[in-house]
Amino acid sequence: MDFPSSGRRRLFLLPAALLARFGTEANAQAGPAPVLHTFGDSILDCGRYNEHGVHPGQLLVQNDDRLFPEFRGQDLRPWSAVLDHRAVDGATVDGLEAQARGLRPQSRGIAMLTVGGNDLLRGLAGDSGRGVAAFEARLEAFLRRLPLRPVLIGTVYDPTFGHDERNFLGVEARIARANHRRVNDVLRAAAARHGRLVDLHAHFLTGEPSWFVHTIEPSLRGASEVRRAFLPAVLDAVKR
To answer: What sections of the chain are H helices per DSSP?
Structure first.
């Protein structure tokens, strides 16, 4: 029995479409599984500040579809990614070397870094010049030795949303804001040399106080918003 020519076309097009879909899924799984490494401070290590123990790295590797249904399917599950969580709440730039101890080069390693907030809290907010320069030197030394590329570097957000009356630092707001900008400029320059910038500062200025707990720490919503900011850069990196 002969089929009409249009019927023959449909019979051949369906398997081709299925093959294309399966090919895309296979490509996501090809090669070694990517490893997402987190370095830095509580912006990435904020699980203790919410009742679910959630932090941004784990949401990037596998979204919690119950807590954040709007991010369903927006994670690294198609690539079977693995999380290497090294960020430590309270860390400063001086603690980065210890966080990277024992790390080996990986062909599909992606690094996320947030640092500078605790450095500002511990003196850089009132710095007269030399402190930010020393911060920059220590950060650059760490990044040069880090055997991972790309490095996705987040800026330091502002929990006061730019309102001087919310200043909690004990340093004149004008001086503190200038040093905050200087630290973020250092991070921008480092990202240009070693990977890609993730502008947490700009993103969090669009937010609200519920994104924070204890004045400066990411809440559950805040952890998801950090994830939101990093997600495009992480997906671009894993697709390379």
So the answer is: 5-29, 56-61, 96-99, 117-121, 130-145, 173-194, 200-204, 220-239
